[in-house]
């Protein structure tokens, strides 16, 4: 489990943690999540909380072990690429992510 807070940038090296099961990003000032997050194939839970500056996240379709996804107060985030391809997803919580269009995400 990795919990990171108040970051301006998530290092690309995060993708090397291939056994990581939980990643929580909180109160950060990141505008994007690196593409390498898509290599965390054992990730079961991803939480992005109070990441108000976050605009983009990479395609998460390779995160086939992901069971829980929570996006909270990610006001500028417009899309979650690959969401519709997550076959193990059991819980999706979206809170105060006004720019997200669910219709586009489930196509």
Automatic annotation (TrEMBL):
Residues 7-98 form the Disease resistance R13L4/SHOC-2-like LRR domain. Pfam families: LRR_14. The keyword Repeat applies. Keywords: Repeat. This is Disease resistance R13L4/SHOC-2-like LRR domain-containing protein.
